[in-house]
């Protein structure tokens, strides 16, 4: 049986959507652009096909195929109600994604009323919302803080903040917001050099917030991101109550395949 799931990534043009998609999948799926004039007009789809055995003790043969589609939406340019509703909500509501990832970089333009509409319709449809401040060093600290304030005030209209951990704010099982630098950042003029930041924390936040089938689809989406699975294995083991000896065995013996070894434990826990 093929299980099909969707992830939607949206936001203004050139804020770092495609770069974030690559950072979360742990491979170069999406084309990114460094030219100011270039933008994607067409909706891009990236498909990930997986054959994973979910190793459920209750059944001997439940090898499932997962097909995950990541929708890289064209950058919202006009932010009119028509445009937003046409380009984003349509695929969001139609595809009923596991997660809607909204990206904005510090100082980038967005209409908060339209963003609110996106958030409201997602939360009402039970679609998990991740609001991400992307390319965090591309603007000043002030504009980054303003963006995070906007995210917080929008999300807290729908759910109270339930946790603020490792620079990720959680809003129950409905949403989170986070800040990332998806690839190394360098600005010679300002003498700034920064490494990748916040990706593991964002992925951990989404992983630990999703449940059931959505969690499974999400795990398959990020299964190739070796650095996430190895860096966060201990925290994941804690959240999903994987016994310490098992977690240690996975860490020591599975090298590149930590995801494959851990995901079945997470899946089992997800349905408890
Ligand atoms: N250093 C750094 N550059 C980024 C980051 N995100 C995006 N960029 C750069 O910003 C430009 C636009 O990114 P892209 O992902 O194509 O934006 P999109 O139009 O929203 O998909 C590219 O040159 C990227 O390399 C980031 O987190 N850190
Ligand atoms: Mg793009």
Automatic annotation (TrEMBL):
Domain G, chain residue ranges per copy: 7-94
Top-level taxon of origin: Eukaryota
Entries under Gene3D superfamilies matching the protein: P-loop containing nucleotide triphosphate hydrolases
Gene Ontology molecular function, alphabetical: GTP binding
Signal sequence residues: none
One Pfam family matching this protein: MMR_HSR1
Name this protein carries in UniProt: G domain-containing protein
Native organism: Adineta steineri
């Amino acid at each position: 049986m093929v299980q099909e799931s969707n992830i939607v990534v949206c936001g203004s043009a050139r804020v770092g959507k495609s770069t974030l998609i690559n950072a979360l999948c742990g491979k170069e799926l999406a084309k990114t652009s460094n030219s100011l004039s270039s933008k994607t007009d067409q909706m891009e789809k990236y498909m990930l096909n997986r054959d994973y055995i979910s190793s459920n003790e209750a059944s001997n043969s439940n090898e499932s195929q997962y097909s995950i589609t990541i929708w890289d939406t064209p950058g919202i340019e006009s932010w009119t109600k028509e445009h937003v509703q046409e380009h984003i909500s349509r695929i969001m509501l139609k595809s009923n994604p596991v997660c809607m990832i909204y990206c904005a970089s510090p100082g980038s333009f967005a209409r908060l009323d339209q963003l609110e509409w996106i958030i409201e319709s997602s939360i009402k449809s039970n679609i998990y919302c991740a609001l991400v401040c992307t390319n965090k060093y591309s603007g000043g600290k002030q504009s980054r803080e303003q963006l995070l304030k906007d995210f917080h005030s929008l999300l807290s209209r729908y759910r109270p903040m339930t946790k603020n951990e490792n620079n990720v704010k959680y809003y129950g099982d409905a949403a989170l917001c986070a800040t990332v630098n998806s690839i190394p950042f360098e600005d010679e003029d300002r003498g700034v050099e920064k490494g990748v930041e916040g990706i593991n924390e964002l992925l951990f936040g989404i992983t630990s917030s999703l449940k059931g089938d959505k969690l499974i689809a999400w795990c398959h989406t990020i299964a190739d991101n070796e650095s996430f699975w190895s860096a966060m294995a201990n925290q994941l083991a804690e959240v999903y109550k994987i016994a310490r000896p098992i977690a240690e065995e996975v860490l020591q013996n599975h090298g590149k395949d930590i995801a494959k070894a851990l995901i079945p434990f997470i899946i089992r826990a997800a349905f408890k």
